[in-house]
Amino acid sequence: MDTESWQLLEEAVRKTMTTASGRQLDEALAELGWLDMLTQMPDSAVPLVFRLLGETGSHAPVINDVVLHAAGRDAGGTVPLPFAGGSWVVWERTDGATTTLGGELPIRRVPNGEPLPLAAGRRALGWWLVGSSRAMLTRARQHALDRVQFGRPVASFQAIRHRLAETLVAIEGAEAALQAACDELGCLLAKAAAGQAALTAARHCQQVLGGIGFTAEHELHRHVKRSLVLDGMLGNTRELTREAGSILRAKGFAPRLAQL
């Protein structure tokens, strides 16, 4: 696909996500050829779709498709997914939000699941977390430019700049890890980095936004809640970091994860 065609596709996906969410978005993505893209060019389609899910704040149960495709099964259904703390959940393809994880998503707990290849799913969720992190940073940055205290924008204060800069560094580092991820360990570490970046973004952007960031009218709290849920899917940052340590200890060495 040439550059112009790709830009048109990205614009179409973004526009769709700003007007639909949940089951409606799931169906709209299918009409745009999401499942075909997942089969034919997953390395391009997955970052595009999941990053835009984070940036727009919309949601769709497409993580099921990524995990099912990686397992060699037909996409379009649902599958139990491991969640933080040794639990299992199913992300339903409906609009019936549950109270299981915050009450905004159609996710319900199930007793157990079966072992599945998780590398592709972790990489996909990592892109979603990066998109959410960028959305939080964008809103905090704009607030810092607009908000005036002591006769000047708060963006001119060094403490504000440091928080925004640290957030950007965390996001860029996570994105670089996702771009380099090509095996199970790489995807595991990339998901952990993306989860940590999202937690860093939530903490710093909340401080930059101040009291308005706590209000229900502001979008920050939705991105924070979404990031906490996504961080827990397929293992949270702390669990994945411990798992990576166990893998490296068993190997006795740290393999090269990227060609620099």
TrEMBL record:
Keyword Flavoprotein present in the record's keywords: the answer is: yes
Keywords, ordered alphabetically: FAD, Flavoprotein, Oxidoreductase
Q: Which domain of life is it from?
A: Bacteria
User: Which SUPFAM superfamilies has this protein been placed in?
Assistant: Acyl-CoA dehydrogenase C-terminal domain-like
Protein's recorded name: Acyl-CoA dehydrogenase
Segments traversing the membrane: none
Species annotation:
Mycobacterium heckeshornense
Q: Name one GO molecular function term.
A: acyl-CoA dehydrogenase activity
Q: Does the keyword RNA-binding apply?
A: no
